[in-house]
Amino acid sequence: MPDSKYANLDGIERYCVANPDLSCDLPTEQVLDMIHMLKARHRTVPSGIYVEVQAELERARKKFGAFPTEQHGYAVILEEMDELWDEIRHKVPSVAAMRKEAIQVAAMAVRFTQDVCDQ
């Protein structure tokens, strides 16, 4: 692969290029074209959301510690999802309450990944 063509790739693109066996049977060029098409369709996540997820993750870690088992982690994520669903089902859902619950879901998913999957 010519270096200049791949010089400005972001993380996912570099990962696909570096691990062609994970990109199914498609040629690298086609995989990169698909990634660019998908990225063009979706807006980027504002960095403030990451800050909020990180703050929620730190708050939960201080209060509860690490997930002791994958079942416990799953139960916590499910509980947060149920709380989000409860907010969504209100006759007039509160955007602020839904956002808060969604941030908590994201934080618990990160916590699960770190505590259970990355040990």
Give the helices and strands, then pairings.
Blueprint: H1 11-18, H2 28-41, H3 47-64, H4 70-88, H5 95-117
What does this entry look like structurally?
With 119 residues, the protein is mainly alpha-helical. It has two domains: 4-41, no CATH class; 47-117. It is built from five helices and no strands. The chain is extended, with a radius of gyration of 19 Å.
Structural class: mainly alpha
The oligomeric state of the chains shown is single chain
Distance between the termini: 34 Å
Unreliable stretches: none
Round the mean pLDDT to the nearest integer and report it: 80
Number of helices: 5
Provide the β-strand percentage band: under 5%
- Count of DSSP E strands? 0
Q: What form results from the Cα inertia axes?
A: extended
**What is the succession of H and E elements?**
HHHHH
